[in-house]
Design a protein that fits this description.
Oligomer: single chain
Helix content: 25-40%
CATH class of the largest domain: Alpha Beta
CATH superfamily of the largest domain: Nucleotide-binding domain of ferredoxin-NADP reductase (FNR) module
Largest sheet: 6 strands, antiparallel
CATH topology of the largest domain: Rossmann fold
Strand order of the largest sheet: 13-12-15-10-11-14
Strand content: 15-25%
Number of strands: 20
Bound molecules: FE2/S2 (inorganic) cluster
Length: 460
């Protein structure tokens, strides 16, 4: 039986994103066995892997932090709770006993075989076996990589969702739900506190542990089928779970939430950054690229959410500066949403172009941050069009994406014609355009293929 790793674990062990591994598989540079990777195959494709380099396991986390400026967790700790660590170590101890028993049995067999060979007249086979046994064992890179994987298994359990096949890691003191959301998955949930039952999922294999008491009452059938609340338990071992995920805007209910203003800052002369925070137990479920209605001071506007759905509590908006006078810190803003269908075509394997200008950047930022959070390298090129020769207001953020992602390109240019010059045939691309009326009409003149356009219902 070959030693196999899931794609997510393999990516962590060699310090690349899961998308990078998938790309190698698509290009035929890596082959899989039953959907998983052989350890030897991984080492062949990544010979430069530094087995003893502990920084290796941190690289993917650094990529995401650099690229999304992810805020620290509420209780910043990379380690799970003591209870979870003990449970994982007990399980590892049992595995160790099994391996040691098997090893002892093999040793005894080897000794018996050696003794039997010694009794034969021709002892050349006996001498050969003795020499082989006495050879100093070499350090096997594959075994060392598996040892790293064991350490990874103590720090973080891996969860696979069926039927989608999505994978993510549960780290620190996260519930399974929190870990899924951080990984950019649109899993079903509601209250996040064990009351509504919206996050219930069937544990198909593996062990979970409750991390809070909850009020939701399971039916007898649900108990028999091993249903659990993902918001109220964490993973002790690697898991396979059957859980509902949103794939389209229609899968997500309309929500009304009273939020608080937590940050106000000028992005440039014309744009204001507004950060709203929801209550801890009533975060906003949305898909990247959607927008919300904001009500404040007898005013109602629609605005695209500029942040990643992996953090449904802290919501970023880039508004016209004229609204600055309406807001104060900690003021209540009524939010209704999400709206809109400018969302990623998740099942598309086609390369992707994003085209934007100052007015259209928020949904594009949300889409790109979502792609980064989900370890999915489908981004190819971002174009930021501006006829004014001034630096775009989030130029540095776009440059940080280039540094963080292996295949990401970013071009700041004065005309959309640049896109057509670079990509004369866009028929095999997914193209997302968000921006001013000028940008949209310029796109309609030069792009002949189908593309996705970000549209608000219109502000009142
Ligand atoms: S989200 Fe409501 S019970 Fe888990």
């Amino acid at each position: 039986m070959p030693q196999l790793l899931t794609l997510s674990r393999a990516a962590r062990l060699v310090g690349v994103t899961r998308g990078a591994i998938q790309k190698k598989i698509q290009n035929g540079e890596l082959s899989t066995f039953e959907g998983q990777l052989k350890v030897t195959e991984l080492l062949r494709a990544y010979p430069e892997t530094q087995i003893d380099d502990t920084h290796m396991l941190e690289r993917v986390k650094q990529i995401k932090t650099a690229a999304t400026f992810t805020r620290p967790r509420d209780h910043e700790s990379a380690l799970p709770s003591t209870d979870v660590l003990i449970a994982r170590l007990i399980k590892l101890g049992k595995e160790l006993i099994e391996v040691k028993s098997a090893f002892k049995r093999q040793n005894e067999l080897l000794k018996t075989t050696s003794n039997k060979l010694a009794e034969l007249e021709d002892d050349s086979l006996h001498q050969w076996l003795k020499a082989e046994i006495q050879q100093h064992p070499k350090l096997d890179p594959a075994a060392q990589l598996l040892a790293n994987d064991t350490v990874l298994g103590i720090i973080a359990a891996q969860v696979k969702i069926i039927p989608s096949g999505h994978e993510f890691f549960v780290e620190g003191k996260d519930s399974i739900l929190q870990a899924a959301l951080r990984a950019g998955l649109a899993i079903n949930y509601g209250c996040e506190s064990g009351n509504c039952g919206a996050c219930k999922a069937r544990i198909v294999s593996g062990e979970v542990q409750a991390i809070r008491n909850y009020d939701y009452v399971f039916t007898d059938l649900e108990k028999q089928m091993n249903y659990q609340l993902l918001c109220s338990c964490t993973a002790i071992t690697d898991l396979t779970i059957e859980a509902a995920e949103a794939h389209n805007p229609e899968d997500i209910p309309l929500q009304q939430i009273d939020t608080k203003v937590k940050k106000l800052a000028q992005l440039n002369d014309e744009l204001l950054l507004l950060r709203l925070q929801t209550p801890r137990t009533n975060t906003l479920r949305f898909l990247a690229g959607q927008y919300a209605t904001l009500q404040f001071d007898n005013t109602e506007i629609q605005a695209f959410i500029a942040s990643c759905p992996c953090d449904g509590r802290n919501l970023e908006f880039h508004l016209n500066s004229k609204y600055n006078k309406f807001f104060d810190l900690n003021q209540t803003v009524k939010l209704e949403g999400p709206h809109g269908d400018f969302v990623l075509q998740e099942n598309s394997k086609r390369p992707t172009l994003f085209i934007t200008d100052d007015q259209g950047f928020p949904p594009i930022k949300s889409l790109i941050e979502h792609v980064i959070a989900s370890d999915n390298e489908i981004i190819n090129h971002l174009y930021w069009i501006s006829q004014e020769k001034i630096e775009h207001y989030q130029h540095n953020l776009c440059r940080s994406w280039v540094d963080a992602l292996d295949d990401f390109k970013y071009t700041a240019t004065e005309t959309i014609n640049q896109v057509v010059t670079d990509y004369p045939d866009l028929s095999n691309f997914e193209v997302y355009i968000a921006g001013s009326e000028n940008l949209i009409s310029a796109a309609a003149k030069v792009l002949t293929n189908k593309y996705h356009i970000a549209k608000l219902r219109g502000n009142k």
